[in-house]
Amino acid sequence: MKLKLFFVALVMCTGGFLFGQNENPDTIKTINLGEVVITANRVPVLLKNNTGSVSLVTSRSLINMPKSIGIEEVLRLVPGVRIDNQHDGERVHVSIRGQGILTERGLRGIGVIIDGIPVNDPSGFAPDLYDVDWATVKKIEVMRGPAAGLYGGGAAAGVINIFTNNGGPNPIGGELSQTFGSHGFTKSLVQLDGTKNDMDYRISYSRSNGDGYRAHQAFWSNKLYEKVNYRPSKKLSVTQIISHTDYFQQNPEGLSIDQLSNPLQANPDACPFNEYQKSNRTTIGLLGTYKINEKQDIQVSSFLRLWNYKETSNRAAEYRTYAVPGVSAQYNLHLTSGKIKNNISLGTDLKWQNINMYKLQSAGNPDRVESIDETNIETDVLLANQVIAQRSIGVFGLYNLEIAKFNVMGSVRYDGMNNELTDKMLGLASAKVSKNYTQFSSRLGASYSFSHVATVFANWSQGFMPPSTEELASNPEGYSGFNTHLVPATSNSFEIGSRGFLGEKLNYEITGFSMKTKNDFFRFKQSGRGNQEVFYGNAGNSKRIGLETAFTYNFLENLSLQIAYTYADYKYSSATVDPVYTDPAYVLTTPPAAGQYLPNSPKHQLFAEAVYKINKHVTISLGTEFQSKWAIYTDAKAYAGELDPSIYQNWQDGFNLYHARVAYNWNLWKLKGECSLSARNFTNANYMAFTEPDPDGNSYQPGPGREFFGNIKVRF
Predict the structure, then answer these.
(1) What architecture does CATH give domain 2-293+304-715?
(2) Where are the domains of the chain?
(3) Model confidence pLDDT, tens digit, residues 272-302
(4) CA–CA dist 487, 484 (Å, integer)
């Protein structure tokens, strides 16, 4: 089927080369960003008037993805964001301004919203981004900096607001896409969409798989996404969404220094224990907006997420079953008098989550033949059997004042979170343990627009990051139960910046910020708990100072340059005073000391991309990606060089990579298409994609060498 689809699309491309004569959309033309509306603030506001730092990712950047399966492809030109794509799949670490940098997996303290449906659980943790098919995304808003006053504990670092495509203009339309590439990578996408009267629809299915560039790194995924927008009247609009994801990812683990002589190997534990993660998840969402009158409207959304998860390691096979319902409601009042506009909003977010979890002890098989399967050897030794029940409530108020060129935005929010664990392996008297967290958070910002060319803004915001589900459930005192020693991290951040737009010629934003965090986190391990058992503690305080800048400039009508640069100076400012985390009988890792840099945080990051449209059909792009050196460990002894240097070397050299892409766009009859060829790291540089502060020294995750990807896309 894949070969047939590829052959048909190849014929289309060939026909396009020979007969395509019609003008195609200009793929490097900038949109008028001065008229773009941002909704990540929970109230619509013009991008030019936004009172805090925000990045907008549009089709201009989205068309240049070589594989369209990872967020690092999508947010490459967004400053302040650090993305570690684990093992050529979608199991990622994402941090904004250093918040969430120590998460074992997923997104910690970053709000993720897909078509109005939140991905974060009640603790603020987003486990992955499997539900997003990046080839179907229309735009992304990235709000950088704490936004707990808007979204609570799920937005201590910022918000990623994702919008997928709606239905096309015709009653029936669609798209076929096929990608092939290095390391056995393939992705097939089939989409059907359209618009009829007051309704538009889109349904897409994609299948991705690959062998990975390291041993024991294969993955595959199936994604189904259906969205219907219905507007029965001028007052009412309704959106219905169904998403289903089936994802499998082998885990080759990190390597130690002595294993880097062969960077493509897996950690010796990975294969005999067949370490992998498997997710099967369905999300159903319903959103509605009702316009009461010209001054008032109500927005309501609800969702139900059901999924099964399995992760295997050299210590245990962990099984989880999730049920996650949620609902949000927001009332908006719009008052206008001349040039003065007042917008007042009141709302609430409610989430629940029930997790049934048990662990079986693993046993390795040194004679296991490597294959892409979901088998692993499990004994009948039950290590944990428990139920986690969570609920959260957030109540918020927003205010937005516009007076001509002056704009003020403020918000205040109360969050209450309850976590309760029932251990089925204990007697009733000691079976239950709970941890509750409450917090008030606020945000206040202002902007003044001198002209389209220059708007200055200043913003003060608070962050609230309670221990996540993953952190709580990783109990260093036993295989079950909560880590009761953890307390929430809170932060205060101030930023000042400027943005501007010069027609379709130039747009830019530059932001400086300072953020202080109390009770920041660190990761540690214990003897006898296996390589995959990671625990968390409060490290003390930290201070982050940074500069973020991004601009796009069209030198000529057919040549543009985009640059995103981040300066990051992230340090622990005081050490923990909790004796629990300094007891050598409790942890193997010494907490960080004051003055240490946060791990995996390069001081300099830069991504630049030039796009040149040779003619109406052919476009080429060249990109470069640079990261300076960074610290690896949180362990104070490793940082100070007091541990064995053959195992622990605290500093990792940075890297500089080069990428290229050429695309041919064509029109043939009623069909539109694109053929493209991408080369990543075409100089074949050896580099470390990222590191983890692993107390065992298995900290190194090598990046892939030279890779090629080809794509054929047909739109009908």
Answers:
(1) Beta Barrel (2.40)
(2) 2-293+304-715
(3) 999 999 999 999 999 999 999 999 999 999 9
(4) 8
